[in-house]
């Protein structure tokens, strides 16, 4: 089959990997002018206007690591070969757990530490080794060629200059700003309404590099925390790089100044766990990048149990995107590409069955994560706008803060369930399973007998005062 993939981000490249290995001829069409650089250091400075999130921290979760290990070990090998690291989560097990004996399934608790551009660069290097893959850069798709039929069939793509390219199957992996639904509508296909919710956050990230010979200060905890008004995380990357990210409410103008490099570092220095990373002669290698307009959004090409189009799929952020705070996008994008590969393999000669199979796999595997993101965002929004909070959400929040989080430091059952959930290796509902939940509740019930944890950083009032920030400028 001649396949056209729109977009050379993580999902487009993952789909290309899956389908070219299955014997299909794949042409990737990427709008950004990104000629292939020699090294991952050069790729870090790629012009990626089409995917501005590459300038932000990326956690590469266990599900992604396991998909690579089990299906594309050559990608994992190359990534590690160019300086990425495998984060073995059992190496960071708290000393205070009631049982630190390793079990067989712990081998899956591995994440990857790499800059997002390094990951893309490696993926691109691997896919172009296949003579059945061609990558065209610097030219964006502007529409779809569609043949009328009982279910309309996509037969290719068109470009702004009036030219077009024919394919047997087209995959839109063109990210969160994808116009694919509009292209279908323009061609007369009726597209079901999308579900959309703004996350209400702004992201600020800056990348750093440590001098040769200085190791990243990777301790027994991953560095991430929530000060209530500001969330922070330190992400380690490849080749002695790391990045620091803050997320604040997009309506909280007091923190808009964090976009300024000096202010960004002043904030870092007030958060002890993050400040430690700067104390090792870390040199900034980027400015502070900010990004807003971050959405949870769900689309589908199936309406009333029927496909609306044949020979066309949307994958990755183009189909479903979630709040980046949970760090799930690359893993779910790669997972989607894998599921699409399976659907096409299962029904090689039946385009409608390919679409239906993929849509059902999405419902079963990916939608629970979308729903979990939406639910969790709603609950943290109600915490911020605490007026009129209901007792149930108050109780839920207390169980999370004073039950679940401390229980991940004392109960091996809870620690494992939490790590599996965070890494998309167990259903989001795993934390409600009786053996996990009873441990969480035991911890919660003893909350008044415990010495409270030291604060992770200053209160909002302290931060505003120390940095002399103007409230609501
Ligand atoms: C601030 C931020 C932080 C994030 N942090 C994490 C994280 O920690 N971990 C994680 O896993 N995920 C994270 N994500 C999510 C992750 O970046 C996305 O889920 C992932 O990039 C989706 O990949 P994609 O290939 O579907 O889309 P993209 O990576 O956006 O790629 C789409 C590609 O399509 C191209 N394109 C667009 N339109 C056209 C066109 N018309 N013709 C041709 N090409 C086109 C673009 O140039 C781009 O290269 C984060 C997202 C954001 C915004």
Q: What would you note in describing this structure?
A:
The structure is a single chain. Among the domains are: 2-58 and 115-196 and 295-373, FAD/NAD(P)-binding domain; 201-291, Alpha-Beta Plaits (2-Layer Sandwich). The chain has 14 helices and 21 strands. The protein has helices at 10-21, 40-43, 62-71, 73-81, 116-127, 180-186, 261-269, 272-278, 329-346, 351-384, 391-407, 412-422, 434-445, 460-466; strands spanning 2-6, 25-30, 85-88, 110-113, 133-137, 141-147, 153-159, 164-166, 169-172, 195-198, 201-209, 224-226, 230-236, 241-249, 283-284, 289-291, 295-298, 302-303, 306-307, 312-314, 320-321. The strands form 6 sheets. Strands 11, 12, 13, 14, 15 and 16 form a 6-stranded antiparallel β-sheet that branches. The chain has a 5-stranded parallel β-sheet with strand order 5-2-1-9-20, with helices on one face. A 3-stranded antiparallel β-sheet has the order 6-7-8. Helix 1 packs parallel to helix 9. The longest helix is centred in the C-terminal third of the chain and has 34 residues, at 351-384. It starts with a strand and ends in a 7-residue tail after the last helix. Flavin-adenine dinucleotide binds at residues 6-12, 29-32, 50-51, 53, 56-59, 140-141, 173-176, 203, 291, 294, 316-318, 321, 324, 327-331, 333.
